[in-house]
Specification:
266 residues; alpha/beta; 5-stranded parallel β-sheet; 8 helices; 13 strands
């Protein structure tokens, strides 16, 4: 019989990551920490300085750490601390944690050498700074494509941004962010090749709305299997697998590509 792990979250992380809902949906795996007892899993918000906060949790004995919507930061010291302690640090990202991402990544990577261009539009409701939207947007794109070259911010304001970059094969990338309440929040990513491409549409992680991944080629159009699970719940399921197996997730190593892309913004 597998273990149930106790959870404690900061107020900011609890709200941003829908922690109570995700934990309640996996009652045999996780439960709230009782009183002042140390928690097996600590959840922190990904505001600037989150790597230090996560490292403190690992040093204090947490077996797992969930970081909600992490801002771009260097993760070297946190990786070292987690490796030494054998702790699992997973990132609960707005779109990059969607359960459809692994299949979408395989489809994009298989075609990226023949890419003609990549176009992507991210939409968020009025409220958060557009800089946060850009970080979430880049995390999803970089998860699919790998690091981007020559990333440039052409325009940036409270209502959105426009950025360009280049894929590894030299194909152009266009990124646009829109802050508005007039259309549903989410991100669409379209890779075009000489004979088809991949279209990925990722919804907000507030409910189990499914992402759609469509692959087009000479054989026609193929819709990949639909997964009705939120990004939040998928993150917690993945954490449970690592905790049970005693393995270290690759989240921090993958996130380095996102931080590297943001650091090169000109």
């Amino acid at each position: 019989m597998s273990s149930q792990y106790s959870v404690r979250a900061t107020p900011e992380a609890r709200e941003a990551g829908a922690v109570a809902l995700a934990v309640a949906s996996l009652p045999e795996s996780f439960g709230p920490a009782v009183g002042e007892n140390p928690a097996d899993v600590v959840v922190v918000a990904g505001h600037p300085g989150w790597t230090g906060e996560a490292a403190k949790a690992v040093t204090a004995g947490a077996r797992g750490v969930v970081v909600v919507n992490p801002a771009a930061e260097k993760t070297d010291s946190l990786q070292a601390a987690a490796q030494q302690a054998g702790a699992a640090v997973v990132l609960d990202q707005r779109w990059a944690s969607n359960p459809a991402i692994p299949a979408a990544e395989d489809a994009v990577r298989s075609m990226i050498g023949r890419a003609a261009m990549l176009d992507s539009v991210a939409t968020a409701p009025v409220g958060p700074d557009s800089g946060e939207l850009l970080a979430d947007h880049l995390a999803a794109v970089v998860r699919l494509t790998g690091p981007l070259a020559n990333l440039r911010l052409l325009a940036h304001g409270p209502r959105g941004y426009t950025a360009t970059a280049v894929l590894t094969n030299g194909a152009p990338v266009a990124l646009q962010g829109i802050v508005t309440n007039a259309r549903p929040a989410g991100v669409s990513i379209t890779l075009l090749t000489d004979d088809g491409g991949v279209n990925v549409a990722l919804p907000e992680p507030l409910a189990a709305w499914p992402a759609t991944v469509t692959v087009t080629g000479p054989q026609g159009e193929l819709l990949l299997p639909t997964i009705y699970e939120s990004a939040h719940r998928a993150t917690w399921r993945r954490l449970k697998q690592h905790l049970d197996a005693g393995t270290i997730p690759s989240d921090l190593q993958r996130f380095a590509a996102t931080s590297e892309s943001i650091a090169t913004l000109t």
